[in-house]
Amino acid sequence: GENVEQHPSTLSVQEGDSAVIKCTYSDSASNYFPWYKQELGKRPQLIIDIRSNVGEKKDQRIAVTLNKTAKHFSLHITETQPEDSAVYFCAASRWGKIIFGKGTRLHILP
Amino acid sequence: GAGVSQSPSNKVTEKGKDVELRCDPISGHTALYWYRQSLGQGLEFLIYFQGNSAPDKSGLPSDRFSAERTGGSVSTLTIQRTQQEDSAVYLCASSLEGGAHFNTEAFFGQGTRLTVV
């Protein structure tokens, strides 16, 4: 079955700097890659997603890139703000089944 | 409209007892997922329902766990003979369509926090 690896598990960046989270997946047939943000005590919420026919997608300060050949995708957050502090999960999906990475706890330092 | 609703929000049970967790998906969503999140951990896949297809049960950790989805809507996750290691937050999610060629956003419920004492 699908396996999603996510790195790093914890990331601290200075406010205003950029943050990058990287994921790899094992099933080459996976075709949908969502990213979720989970704030403390809250439910995960989708922040951006990308499909396998697209290499890059951007939405304001966040962007995702996908390298299908390497089975690798990344989340980039620019100009980080205090409200970006949360746990971020990458995921890969095939036939609708969504498998998540173990998450990255992002700390934004003042 | 209403989002994904889970009940109860919190459940404390004694070791060895059975528990049932309920999920009401968003109306019209054909795909429904159960995940388990232990304290500070990731989202562990348990089971996935898609329309009338047979569910993907590959994530259920033992035969003490089972789930059903009646009428393509409400789902219940049952844990028999609960153990302390079953303590976690159980999250349900639903999406509009989960087929091979069309994946859409999965919306999560607020979760059920299960504590086995």
Walkthrough of the structure:
The complex is a heterodimer of chains A (110) and B (117). With 110 residues, chain A is an all-beta fold. In chain A, 0% of the residues lie in helices and 59% in strands. Chain A is built from no helices and 11 strands. In chain A, the strands form 2 sheets. In chain A, strands 2, 4, 5, 9, 10 and 11 form a 6-stranded mixed sheet that branches. Chain A has a 5-stranded antiparallel sheet with strand order 1-3-8-7-6, with no helix packed on it. Chain A is globular, with a radius of gyration of 13 Å. The termini of chain A are far apart. Chain B has 117 residues and is an all-beta fold. Chain B is 0% helix and 45% strand. Chain B is built from no helices and 10 strands. In chain B, the strands form 2 sheets. In chain B, strands 2, 4, 5, 8, 9 and 10 form a 6-stranded mixed sheet that branches. Chain B is globular, with a radius of gyration of 14 Å. At the A-B interface, strand 5, strand 9 and strand 10 of A face strand 4, strand 5 and strand 8 of B.
Give the structural class of chain B: mainly beta
Per DSSP, the total helix count of chain A is: 0
- Could you give the order of the helices and strands of chain A? EEEEEEEEEEE
> What share of residues of chain B is helical?
under 10%
Largest sheet of chain A: 6 strands, mixed
The proportion of strand residues of chain B reads over 45%
Radius of gyration of chain B: 14 Å
**What structural category arises from helix and sheet content of chain A?**
mainly beta
Q: What's the β-strand tally of chain A?
A: 11
Average pLDDT, all residues of chain A: 95
